Amino acid sequence: MREVDLGEFAVSWADGVPVVDVRERWEYVDGHVPGALLMPLGQLAAQTAEIPAGDVVYVICASGNRSREGARIVEAAGRSAVSVAGGTSGWAALGRPLDTGDGS
User: Fold this and answer.
1) pLDDT single digits (tens) 11-57
2) Contact, 86 vs 63, CB < 8 A?
3) Residues 33-39: contacts with CB within 8 Å, 24+ apart?
4) Other beta carbons less than 10 A from residue 27's beta carbon
5) What are 38's strand-pairing partners?
6) What is the predicted pLDDT for the residue at 103?
7) How far is CA 8 from the centre of its chain?
8) What's the whole-model pTM score?
9) Fewest CB within a 10 Å sphere: which of 3, 36, 56, 94?
10) What average pLDDT does the chain have?
């Protein structure tokens, strides 16, 4: 499992890579990377087939801990995945855009 820093993630995110947020719904609603799909870590293994196509899946959480486990789960399902070090907290601290709400 590979890990990328927020700078590398920002470049890939701008290119439209699939991003999966493995935090809990309340965390996601409070603020998430625009375009990130909510798939809480405890439900991820059952939802990997719902991840959009792409060469690499970027997995993000609050700080980078849960995303490492999430990336392992995605890889076990046969997809290439990386964990985003620094997570959504780091993304926000850099002044990057955040969406709020659940997308409905």
Assistant:
1) 999 999 999 999 999 999 999 999 999 999 999 999 999 999 889 99
2) yes
3) 33/60, 33/88, 33/91, 33/96, 33/97, 33/98, 33/99, 34/97, 34/98, 34/99, 36/60, 38/102, 38/103, 39/70
4) 17
5) 21
6) 66
7) 13
8) 0.96
9) 94
10) 96
